[in-house]
Amino acid sequence: MNTILVVDDNPDILDALDLLLSIHDYKVLSVTSVKEALLAVSHQKVDLVIQDMNFSEGTTSGEEGKQLFSALKELNPSLPIIIITAWSQLETAISLVKSGAADYLPKPWDDQKLLGAIKEQLAAKVTQSTECALVYQSKEMSELIYTSTKVAAADINVLITGPNGSGKEKLADFVHQKSQRATQPFIKVNMGAIPQELMEAELFGAEKGAFTGANQARAGRFEAADGGTLFLDEIGNLPLSGQMKLLRVLQTGEFERLGSNVTQKVDVRVISATNANLQLDIKNGDFREDLFYRLNGMELTILPLNKRRADIIPLANHFIGDAHSLSKDAEQFLMQYTWPGNVRELENTCKRALIFAEGDCVTASAFQGQEQTSILSEKEHMQQVLDKHNWTIAHAAQELGLSRQTLYRRIEKFKLEKSDD
Questions:
Q1: What pLDDT score was predicted for residue 62?
Q2: Cα 398 to the chain's mean position, in Å?
Q3: Gap between the Cα atoms of 176 and 367, Å rounded
Q4: 139-301 CATH fold
C-alpha cells in the first residue's frame, strides 16, 4: 500500500483528502506544519506528498510552501510532490513545477484529476530507472563501481570508507539502487550531526516520556527503513551504549524503543560510512571489534579526488550544467588544484564560479574572481569558517561537512587558534 503525506493547516481539507485517498486504498499521513512534514519524511516511508502553500494563520505569500518543497527535495530528490493551492498563488505553484514538483491543482480541486495525478506519479516512480547518477571517468572509480554493483546484489552489510566530501553517501545510494531493495526505503542518518544523548532515540525510537523532551512517541530510523536500507554516516561517532544495541539489531533484527519493553523485529540492510580509522578506534577502546565485523561485510573505499584526477573535469562539467561550458584555461586551473575538500569542494567552487561567469563559457577568471580571490587551502578555509561562526564548533562543522570530532582533530593538526577581536 502506497503512503501519501498530506500537508495542510486546514482540518477540513485534511479530513476530505483522508477520506478520498483512504477509500482508494492509500495510507494517509496528515500533518499541519513544515516541521511535522519533514519529520514524517525523515522517519517514515512516504511515496508521495500533497502539500499546501501556507501553513500559518494569516499567511498568503506561499513562502512556507516553497521552503517545504525545497526541504523535501533535499531529503528525497525523487519524492513526487503535488501542490494544491489557491487561485491567487498559481504563479508560485507553476514555478515549483518548473523546479521539479510533480503537478499542481487549484483549490477546490477535482477529485478525479487529483487521483489521476497521484496514479500517474506513483506509476512513474515504479518504472523510474534505478540507475543512480554517478559521474566518473577514472580507472579507479570504474573499478569501484564494478565492485559496488556486485556487492549490491549480495545483500550484505557494507562499510564505505574515504575522506570527507569524497562521495560516500552517493555511493551508498548507488548500492541501494542496484540492490533488490531498490523499491523500498533508503533512510539516511548522519551520526556526526546528532547529539550523542539522542542517537539511540534517533535509531531505535522512543516512547512518550522516555527522556526529557519526549512529548510523544516516535518511530526510529530502523522502523522507517524496514524492508529497505539504512545508511549510517559517520558511524564512528556512535557511543558504546548505542554500539551494543546496534550489534544486537544486526545479529537478530530485534530492538526496543527507548522506554518500551515491546520487542520489534525489522529486516534492514545497513550501509555505514566513516572517514575515521575504525581499527585505531578499536585499539583505543572506542569502537567494538565485533560490531566492526558485523558492519564490514564488504568494505568499499573511495579515494580522495586528487588520487583520481581524471574525474575532476567530468565532475566540474556536471556541476556547471549543460547551459555552460569550461574554457581550456578553466580546466587547467581546476586540474592544478589539490582539492583537499574533495568532490564537495569542487561542487561548491563550480557553483560560485557560475556567479562570476560572463556568458555561457566559464573561464579561469570566474574561479579566480570569487570572493575568496583564490581557492583557499584546507587550513585557511577552516580558519575562515571557524572565525565566521565565532568558533561555535557545531555550526562550523556543519558548514564544513565534518563531524565535531573530526573538526577538533583538524584544529589540533593545523594548530588553529581563535582570532583576537
A1: 79
A2: 13
A3: 35
A4: Rossmann fold (3.40.50)
